Here is the input.
Amino acid sequence: MKNETLYKYFEGVASFEEEEKIREWLKASEKNQKQFLQERKLFNALVLFADKNRKEIPEFSYRKHNRSFYLRELLKVAAIMTIAFSLGYFLSINKTEETEEPLFMQTITVPDGQRIQVSLPDGTKVWLNTRTEFSYPVHLATGKRFAHLSGEAYFEVSKNEQNPFTVYTSKGTIEVLGTHFNVQDYPDQDLFETTLMEGSVKVSSHSDPEESILIQPNQKAFLADGKLIVNQVNDFDPYSWKNGLISFTEIPFEAVMKEFEKYYGKQIIVKNRNIKNYSYTGKFRLSDGLEYALRVLQEDIYFRYSRDSENQVITIE
Here is the structure.
């Protein structure tokens, strides 16, 4: 197997066909599995090296030297997975009620300003948004399909009427047979929201386990004062993060800054009262970064901003 293909897989940008080839290649021999783990270890070492030295190397030095720039770009994508896959990457080993076979969990953590797509063993596809932690069983030995989510994810669940797929979050649970939906539940936010694009899902809240509701396409369920509320969805721009875009439609400036906080993990303080209620419509590529987005906004709205890199704070003045 070419290293280039393996690295695309590690980065989360391999095509469905490439992923299938890698799975077949891994099944073919132990030698292939050893090569896979060796390349993964090397990949992880590069990620850790980059994370350690990121603040010590000026931005322009990467661009000045092609080799360093290539490494930086590779690592920017590679850092999507803060993992140590060499089978120690499995998060926990538990026993299930139905079987004595161990259940190996795999966890993916997405850092600030990044996103990633993963394919689960049952064929389900999941897109993970920035600052998201996602855990799922490596094998379907128990016959159960489930995942644990902290953050935001978009699911395209492979249909199986005999075996529902369950998503567990800190505030609620979502059960589906086969559908497309978005879930948001960041630990540092009160929001718990499930938006359905296709199929049907059952949503329940941990605050009232006996309360559950079924939602239909173009509806979203969210918690308000401990109760699940259902609303119609007319604007799907907020979910274009799946395609690498941050999109807004007539959103107040301060609300835009709150979204930037979510995507880039920085606190943004708006001191300029004149622009707090300015409404903005537009799109940004997530990969362009926060400062690029702020410079674009400055073309329409006059404001200045300062950075406190040590405390990860940006002040809008």
Observations:
- The radius of gyration is 21 Å.
- Helices lie at 3-11, 16-28, 30-53, 59-64, 66-78, 253-264, 290-298.
- DSSP finds seven helices and 19 strands in the chain.
